Amino acid sequence: MTRTLIILIAFSLFTTFSVSAKTLRFAVVPKFHGAFFIQSNKGCQDAAAQIEGVQCIYRGPEIASVRTQDQIIEQLISEGIDGIAVAVTQSKFLAENSLKKAQQAGIPIVTYDSDFDAPTLAKYPNLRLAYIGTDNFEFGKALGVQLKTLRPNGGTLIIQTGRPDSPNLNLRIMGIRSELSAKTYDAPPGKQLYNDNGWTEVREPFSNFDQLAQAVKQMEAVMRGKPTKADSFIAVGGWPQNDADLYRKMIDPYQAKLDNNEVVVVISDAAPHQLNLLKDRLAHINVGQNPYEMGRQAILTLHKIVTQQAYDPVIYTPMKFCTPENYSTCGKSSPKVPIGD
Question: Which Pfam families match (predicted)?
């Protein structure tokens, strides 16, 4: 065997070893740092720890900002990331900027928690390869079903959302409106309820832009009945409860209104601090998601894509239905939530 051939064989073995030994770095990019998304970080870290040669990079804006989220994704691209899971803050902007660059660089993209809206998916059908998270329309319907358990004859409603252009939140609003009105809408967020099946929204949804203090102030206006009066309040995210001390201070004076169902409060998510509030009957119902599983499945899916294994293009994570009566077990299981007819 010639010396040249030996060198070529050695180089070939070294190259194969280097590729197989490479650490795959997958990024999970939340909308912002908060109680909900921190759980997705735990899921992604646990999944990465179970796969040899895989690392989870969790990085997102301190507060919700599509431009900051876009800049973070661009930085990850420049660092040579191997895959990106992103909770979409604003579809069009991300699709036409950082995520377009990621696709051009050959970096696989999946979405979690918040998918692209329908027009963006239609325009860029191959931009993301999978969605992992709640079925947001059905989640909205579940919120509506739970409200009807305490308001079977209808009533007046205020919905609270985050960003008014957030695709997953608009799907939830459409789900609520569909469940309460028994109507079908062409596109999210549907139409404001006005004497539909006994339900009326007294105003367009409050938008808090993911600002927790603002979310609490908006809810306080409903509990106080001034300047906006309604007998039902649904938050399509967990914002007002995510500063538990601020929420408790705000709502304590209205305990009698809660106890008498003068105002029915249904809030999304069921983190431990929210279940503590539920235990103290400072809300009526929480419909929980599973952000831990979203983060875990995001890493597993990206790994399958990169290693050319079969993967599911849509993974819906479970919901859970929590009340003051089952709060102690609700966090430990994911019972099926009824979604109505």
Answer: Peripla_BP_4 (PF13407)
